[in-house]
Amino acid sequence: MPSTTFTPLRREDPTLLTGRGVFTGDVMTPGCLHAVFVRSPMPHGRVRAIDTQGAEGAPGVVAVLTAATLSPSGQAVYLPPPNPLLPITHAPQMDVLARDVVFYVGQPVALVVARSLAEAQHAAQKVQLDIEPLAPVLAFAGTESVTQVSHPFEDAARFQPAATTSITCEVELDVPRVLALSMEPRGMLAQWVHASDDSPESLTVWLGTQSPSRAQADIAAALAWPEARVRVISGHVGGAFGAKSSVCPEDLAIVLAARLLRASVRWQSTRSEEFTSGMHGRGARLKGSLSLSADGRFDTLSADLRFTVGAWLPFSAVAPLRNAARILPGPYRVAKLDVQGSAGLSHSAPVTIYRGAGRPEAALLMETLVEQTARAAGMDPVELRRRNLVPASAMPYTTPTGEVFDSGDYLRALTQACERFDYERQRQLQAQRRAQGEVVGIGLALYVEPCGTGWESAHVDWHEDGTVTVATGSPAQGQGHSTTYARIAAQALGLSPEAVTVIYGDTALCPPGVGALASRSTAIAGSAIVQACNELKARRAAGEALPLSAGGRFTAAESWSYGCVIARMSVDRDTGRPTIEQIVWADDAGHIVHPELAKGQLIGGLAQGLGQAMFEKLVYDEAGQLITGSLMDYAVPRADDMPAIDIHSFAIPSPNNLLGAKGVGEAGCIGVPAALMNAARDALSPLGECPLQFPLTAEQFWRAMNGQV
User: Fold this and answer.
1) What's the pTM?
2) What's the CATH fold of domain 389-395+405-451+560-709?
């Protein structure tokens, strides 16, 4: 038979597809010890005693550590403070290991270190905790807020007195907590490096992180060391989605144990630990109202946003609230805006940024209101949007909350999505199907996606043999950055991508960086690479001989992606089972460096957005116990849940970076859930306005159709 040649889509693929990837759990060091955490079984309680005697005498045990013994001085070591994107009015100081009080189920209380994992697991079962129960505070139960946000706005030239308002619609939406559920759970290996004649003791830390530079700084601060004594390596990472953007208590406990024992220590989270003590996402209660003038213009949007942050604040804990508040009213013009929001503590696992981080909440609230208002006014929802979208001629456009849309044509996205969906024909078919007794709905959603701001760095070496090495501060967790960055450098220098080697994820070899989050890597890290390559090219043109080196930082203002999603959903009248029949999507992510990888990001985000809308929900009971703590109880989409998808990408370049790029990684989690919610509510609209909530389960549809919602 003739041989076939395999051409990988990404340069990363041959290694990963043949099982030769090196993830944190694959790294082996001689004499490495294994760590297992003893965790709180209670959401809130006073620690009266920790009995470690039985565990200390167990076979293979090297140490059993608590908050009192983890640091040499016995003093508390606290988690790093959060990023003050909003004013932090109340940020609890959280010990790496619980000292006097536990604040959530799964909080680490003690650390067992043994010579094998089995021995550590066996000994951990012998640690006895005496905890006096205290009443837990549940999310949204009137807890003290850690931050608040307010965005009042009134366009005096446009706003008319309330008497001209023809319709006002209100909506309340619950956005459940979800789990990032990356294929690779959290883990860490802290390798102890003994002192030598020319260097002090140090640590080399293998950690799956989205921000190696910040992890290095946080670990060094916990150890009270200079950053140069900590090397962080982030090799292959099996997914992150925001949940690996901050160090967690376990990370700092492991490095403290390695220093205390002067030995290498490894920890690998289990899937169960990820549910109870890993980083959660979402978790919000949204209320809003939208008033419409007699001529079909948006008068007033009012929104009340309540977010939960759990028991402690990861670095980006307040980002979801900030994003949701500043994004409203999305791509629309309103005459008056009043957005109020807060985030509060609860006795539950922490909530951090999760793919979209506040953007999905803003789109869900606004787009649900738009469709409900259209139904109340007897208007087609497409026409209502056309009348109120920010026009392309207004770009750059300053929003009511002070954000600046850099570029875009929202009407083009709406028009192209409708054309590809054959909107008018689909509405006719919907009417025919309804007349035949079917339950079917069509839902739209437009969205905007702020795509990171600030700086990233790069260092580029053009070697004597003509090859190039690119080192970047922005690592990867499956996005294909090595392929993308090589293409960017090759195009800038007029070389083949095969001549370019890319290095990332190692603080000893790479320049510092903010990291891979907030849909910022291609636009900002890519521009830093272009900037360095342009300098090299200019020096080469001026007659300088190889080898050459250049590097530095590139700082960018925020770029804004956007798009329009249309979904068609049918519901079985007898069982309530929903079927997503079709999704059509028009998206503008600016200049796209690698179309295939960009489409992969869109589809991946769509799958996670679909999961949030249709399946996923973390549930705490009234006692503060997580009752969806495994994949037996927590549903996620499978391959056969994916519908027919038609994605059309067009490009209006951003003026805010050297590539004209915008972000693409979070779009599916932003627009898709809102479109599915609108399709679901449209399907049941002949019954009235049904207050459906995520996840859109068969039971919920059945109850709504039988008058029980």
Assistant:
1) 0.96
2) Aldehyde Oxidoreductase; domain 4 (3.30.365)
